[in-house]
Amino acid sequence: MPLLSIMGLTVRYGAIQAVRGIDLAVEAGEVVAVLGANGAGKSTTLKAIVGLVPAGGDIRFDGESLRGRATEQIVRKGITMVPEGRRVFPSLTVMENLTLGAAAAANAGAAARSRAEMFDLFPILAERREQRARTLSGGQQQQLAIARALMSEPRLLLLDEPSLGLAPQIVDSIFELVLRLKERGQTILLVEQNAAAALDIADRAYVLANGSVGMSGPAATLRASEEVAHAYLGIEAA
């Protein structure tokens, strides 16, 4: 049974049908990429999973429906999301941001262990633990946003456009980080416009077009497909 199953997902913004009957699944331990052009419904799908937008169809996590659940309840079940644009708390220090991410931790000891693990995974954050988040570079803020999400020890991590707005060399480091998380066994659903880089690290991918799944399959197969590369992704086939 998949860890996450989405069946017939629909989302409307007034008269606009943003998502049109998406079916999607994520197995435990997988990195699954969701690709497509702006307006394809990628970010809306993530928001629907965590209850930020009203949705039709069904979303099941570990076999249990999330319909009608508040976002806080969904987070406590083991799903966290790093939204587009990083959205760290700028006036708080790195330590304070991480502490807020541990709000669902069982106790102070568990939170301390999670912080130590994050500082091991993100050495630059350890160096700047007393620095206010607004003084960090864009790439460092993205690392902080991901670390804060991981503080709750999620079973499923949702990443919404983690490379957006970052310099090319920083983009490479973000994808290297996602690959390290994959190697640690973290289950990830990744929304990303950098299709080539996402397909290089994902196990499987879904390509959305106009709110529907246009194509799906193993990432390597999609990466090598000229049809997918030209029609959906705007990249050269491998």
Helix content: 25-40%
SSE topology string: EEEHEEHEHHHHEHEHEEHH
Global structural class: alpha/beta
**Beta strand count:** 10
Strand arrangement in the largest pleated sheet: 6-7-8-3-9-10
Classify the beta-strand content into a percent band: 25-35%
Overall geometric form? globular
Low-confidence stretches: none
Q: What CATH architecture of the domain at 4-78 and 154-233 would you give? A: 3-Layer(aba) Sandwich
What name does the CATH topology of the domain at 4-78 and 154-233 carry?
A: Rossmann fold
Main sheet summary: 6 strands, mixed
Rounded Rg: 17 Å
What's the total helix number? 10
What is the overall pLDDT average?
Answer: 90
N→C terminal distance = 32 Å
Q: Could you name the CATH homologous superfamily of the domain at 4-78 and 154-233?
A: P-loop containing nucleotide triphosphate hydrolases
CATH class of the domain at 4-78 and 154-233: Alpha Beta
